[in-house]
Design goal:
Mean pLDDT: 91
Strand content: 15-25%
Strand order of the largest sheet: 2-1-5-3-4
CATH topology: Ubiquitin-like (UB roll)
Order of helices and strands: EHEHHEEE
Distance between the termini: 47 Å
Shape: globular
CATH superfamily: Beta-grasp domain
Structural class: alpha+beta
Low-confidence stretches: none
Number of domains: 1
Largest sheet: 5 strands, mixed
Number of strands: 5
Radius of gyration: 13 Å
Helix content: 10-25%
Length: 96
């Protein structure tokens, strides 16, 4: 199994679950894992992917605490026992 950890901002779309486990034989890359997650929880789709079905630029994915951009991006291979963390960037605040 692989584990996908979700921040509190996305848990409302997964019934409040902080993490989801997926069979490792079904998911071989980070992209495949996130797409499988979105298929299981369709309300996540619009928060993770844009209108062109590309991962939104503000969604950061970490594989075992390492940013997948330092590996092979969304094509980063994953294996049994790995943990993915989805971290959407948060902007805002005041300039005053």
């Amino acid at each position: 199994m692989i584990t996908i950890q979700l921040p509190s901002a996305l848990r409302g779309f997964t019934g409040g679950q902080p993490e989801i486990e997926l069979p490792s034989e079904l998911v071989k890359t980070a992209d495949n894992a996130v797409r499988t997650l979105a298929q299981q929880y369709p309300d996540l789709q619009r928060h993770l992917f844009d209108e062109n079905d590309k991962l939104r630029s503000y969604v950061n994915i970490y594989l075992n605490d390492e940013d997948i951009r330092s590996f092979d991006g969304v094509n980063t291979a994953i294996k049994d026992g790995d943990t993915l963390m989805l971290i959407p960037a948060i902007a805002g605040g005041s300039e005053s």
